[in-house]
Amino acid sequence: MRISEDNKLEKIIIVGDRVLIKPKMASDQTKSGLYLPPGVQAKEKVQEGYIMRVGPGYPIPADFGYDEDTWGQEEEEVRYIPLQAREGDLAIYLQRDAIEISYLGEKYFIVPQSAVLMLVREEDL
């Protein structure tokens, strides 16, 4: 899957430690050869999909990492611990923590980083 095909997502800003996932089309046939209706597949506990957008990460308190130079600053910037997930990664995540949204006719999930169990990263993306 190429991320550049979804330029329509550039306006979306994901907040905090969350990621936007486009669900991967699941096979409607089980290993034993049974065909499952779409509703049964959607209720599976573990899902997989491609990460389309990533939030900035976990916010760090303003007084974390005291530095002499910060006394002269009037306005403090918010700093974040970045997430492990990157755009284009294949994510295995817990369905129960995902929030389903529809954007421009496409189905996506907003998932907290803590619900992502595993990432598969293709280095050439």
Strand runs, count: 8
Average residue pLDDT = 80
**CATH level 1 class label:** Mainly Beta
- Biggest sheet, spatial arrangement of strands: 6-7-1-2-5-8
Helix content: under 10%
| Main beta sheet | 6 strands, antiparallel
Number of helices: 1
CATH superfamily: GroES chaperonin
Cα shape: elongated
Could you list the spans in which at least 5 consecutive residues all have pLDDT below 50?
A: 1-5
> What sequence of helices (H) and strands (E) makes up the elements?
EHEEEEEEE
CATH topology: 10 Kd Chaperonin, Protein Cpn10, Chain O
CATH architecture label name = Roll
- What is the strand content? 25-35%
Distance between the termini: 9 Å
Class based on secondary structure composition and strand pairing? mainly beta
Tally of domains: 1
Family: Belongs to the GroES chaperonin family.
Protein name: Chaperonin
Keywords: Chaperone
GO molecular function, one term: protein folding chaperone
Explain this structure to me?
This protein is mainly beta and 125 residues long. The protein has one helix and eight strands. It has a six-stranded antiparallel beta sheet with strand order 6-7-1-2-5-8, with no helix packed on it. A two-stranded antiparallel ribbon has the order 3-4. The chain is elongated and about 60 Å long. The termini are close together.
